[in-house]
Amino acid sequence: MYEDLTALANRLRRGVILRFPFLVPGKRDGIYAYLLTIALMGFALFVRLAIAPVNAGVQYVTFFPAVTLSAIFGGYKSGMLATVIGLILATYIFTPPYYSFSIEVFHLSFWSNMVFLTDGIIVSLSIEAMHRYRLQLKKEFDESRKSEAQVMKLNEELERQIARRKQADEELAEQEEFFRLITENVEDFIAVLDLKGRRIYNSPSYARLFGDVNAMKGTDSFAEIHPEDRERVRKTFSDALQRGIGQRTEYRFLLPNGGISYMESSSGLIKNSRGEPQSVVVVSHDVSERRMAEQKIKEFAFYDSLTQLPNRRLLDDRLEQAIAACKRSGRYGAVLFLDLDNFKPLNDKYGHKAGDLFLVEVARRLARCVREVDTVARFGGDEFVVVLSELAGDESECAREARIVGEKIRAALTEPYLLTPSPQGTAKMITHQNVGASIGAALFHSDASAEDILKWADKAMYQAKESGRNRICFHDSGS
């Protein structure tokens, strides 16, 4: 049902665009945009003459909407063309002496024309900026949809692996001869151990790890387990012997070549005719790829792929935890909202690769400026957020402490940057002359929401921008 409705909506959209392309907002390059601009200005002139006499003194009442429509449908070039046409028409038609191409007319209308010219430039560039921002948001949305599809595909693969693992465990309950037949043909690592953990039998699959399987008989099965996991696995083995019930465990396995594989093992007891434990069957499976896939999913969901900092989703969670902690302790916390100054010129000058390296270095410096209990997150683009948890003292003391951290960050970000963006490894020094950060700070207590706190800090950051950049501004709780 959803797919049918989506297909119908797409057909309707394409039909409207094909039949009435001039109704679709967006920039249109080429001669059609300029012809549309001239037509709009002609219509605006006609309406102006129709609603008022020439000497009515409302020169721009219809020209300004025409400039706006030209910028919407033709881009900023069409908006500027419409502005120029409006200046000419208003000057030499509606300014006394009327219909006169003289310097006197130009002098009389100079200041009003400057105002209209400024408005035209602002409107044209603003509409162009909104148009480009719309395209950027669309691109980010498409990338997000693609990433979600990849995550779903990984989840399906993990479910298939789990299903295969359960099937292998069920097969271990078969009789010994049938069990031996299976062990000769499966890829899992199957071993039979004595009650001290020494190897009695290993399936042929172990040859992929150790070569000669026969040489493994009588060796300690715990020797190749990572030292940090060895005692835990020994305890699991002992518990299985005492309880008579096998357990599943994961651990790191040391390979002969020095590498490490992640293994998942399950065990079962083989008992003699008197019901006493005789040996232990251990079935192991290499889950390294699954662990890597799980780690990638976690990083994709909660961490920025470039800087490895928490992303907006994890930031919201950390901020909610900080608010809850402040509510329990009665202390204040603070949010610092950072926007890098003049990052775009730096990115344009040195290239996007250097820009990425620069953002990575900024993330590293931010992390060094705060405590381990604090959070540094990439909010998006060249914006970062720092959450300071449970500051000590009253509100004024907490504000002073937050300012100290902010100044420390600001000083760290203005230090020179040594980057190596070129494939040849040539280092480039980027000084702090044009690099800095505008920082907005907001204190929070138990009665604030995460959304409001971020808005406060964002608003304060824009105040820092307007005040000259590369400085710290605090949110006024009374505003």
Main β-sheet description: 5 strands, antiparallel
- Roughly what is the average pLDDT, rounded to an integer? 79
Question: SS-based structural class?
Answer: alpha+beta
Anisotropy-based shape? elongated
How do the SSEs run, as a string of H and E?
HHHHHHHEEHHEEEHHEHHEEHEEEHE
Strand order of the largest sheet: 2-1-5-4-3
The level 1 CATH classification of the largest domain is Alpha Beta
Low-pLDDT sequence parts: 16-25
State the distance separating the first and last CA atoms.
Answer: 49 Å
Helix count equals 15
Based on the structure, what is the oligomeric state of the protein chains? single chain
Number of domains: 3
What name goes with the CATH superfamily of the largest domain? Reverse transcriptase/Diguanylate cyclase domain
What attributes does this structure have?
five-stranded antiparallel beta sheet, 12 strands, alpha+beta, five-stranded mixed beta sheet, elongated, 54% helix, Beta-Lactamase, 479 residues, Alpha-Beta Plaits, 15 helices
Describe the fold and architecture.
- The chain is an alpha+beta fold.
- It folds into 3 domains: 2-142, no CATH class; 176-291, PAS domain (Beta-Lactamase), CATH 3.30.450; 303-474, Reverse transcriptase/Diguanylate cyclase domain (Alpha-Beta Plaits, 2-Layer Sandwich), CATH 3.30.70.270.
- It contains 15 helices and 12 strands.
- The protein has helices spanning 2-19, 31-51, 63-74, 76-93, 103-108, 110-171, 176-183, 207-210, 227-243, 288-302, 312-329, 343-350, 352-368, 395-413, 450-466, and strands spanning 189-193, 199-202, 248-254, 260-271, 277-286, 332-341, 375-380, 383-391, 417-419, 428-430, 436-444, 472-474.
- The strands form 3 sheets. It has a 5-stranded antiparallel beta sheet, with helices on both faces. A 5-stranded mixed beta sheet has the order 7-8-6-11-12, sandwiched between helices. The protein has a two-stranded antiparallel sheet with strand order 9-10.
- Helix 2 (31-51) packs parallel to helix 4.
